[in-house]
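Please review the protein record below. Tell me whether the encoded fold seems credible here:
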Amino acid sequence: MVLPGMANTYYVYILSNYSKMLYVEVTNDLERRVNEHKKKLCKGYTRKYNLHQLVYYEETDDIRRAIEREKQLKGWRREKKTELIEGINPGWKDLAEGWYS
């Protein structure tokens, strides 16, 4: 339940692995969702290809905008996604490093 005046936060994020495969998704709880990916609790593509490194994310308070952005990023060629990631994370470091003990 959202209380009046309380804004939600939504995240569009990109996961990768050591082979630099990419996975784009949206969530309202980035820390929980990335932790699920790291623990391989998410069935399917991310578990199969060990996509567990958070290499990019952005946030918004508008779920429609988050979904539109997710669709936009999914439609981009790999080169454009790579440029986006390397613009803020040139070393492809795991941005969630240190979030969990």
